[in-house]
Amino acid sequence: MSADDVYSSSFMAEPSGRNIIYLQGKDLAAGKPEKTQAPPASNLGEAYLQMDYKHEGYYAIGKINLRPMSEVTHGQLPNVQLWFNFENKSLTEN
To answer: Sign of the C-alpha dihedral, residues 9, 12, 18, 21?
Structure first.
C-alpha cells in the first residue's frame, strides 16, 4: 500500500517524516480499515483503504487514502510514499 499526493495530498505535505497512521484498535487483528472510493478506472477498487493519521506538522487528526502501488503507475504520476509509522489507535485514546 502507498500514499501519494493525488489521493492524500495533506498527508504528503512537509514535514511528513514522522506522520503516524492509526490502526483501528478493535479491528486490528481482523484488518478492517474503512474502504474508500477508488477511481472508476481502477482494477483494484476494493483494495483502497482510508485510515486516520496524525501529521507531524498539524494538530488535527486527518484521513489518509492508501492504495496499491500498482494503481500509482498509470495516469498522473504522483510523488509516492511507501514507508509509514503506525500506532494502535486505542492506545492513544486515553
So the answer is: positive
Q: Which three cell numbers stand for residue 57?
A: 506538522
Q: d(Cα 86, Cα 59) in Å, to the nearest integer?
A: 17
Per the structure block, which three cell numbers stand in for 38?
Answer: 477508488
Decide if 47 contacts 66 (C-beta within 8 A). no
Burial class (CB in 10 A: 0-12, 13-18, 19+), 28: middle
Whole-number Cα distances in Å, 59 to 10, 38, 56:
13, 27, 8
Task: Provide the residue-wise pLDDT of the chain in tens; the chain has 94 residues.
Answer: 889 888 888 999 888 889 999 987 665 444 555 667 777 777 787 888 888 999 998 889 999 888 888 888 777 777 888 888 888 876 666 5
The pTM (predicted TM-score) of the whole model is: 0.75
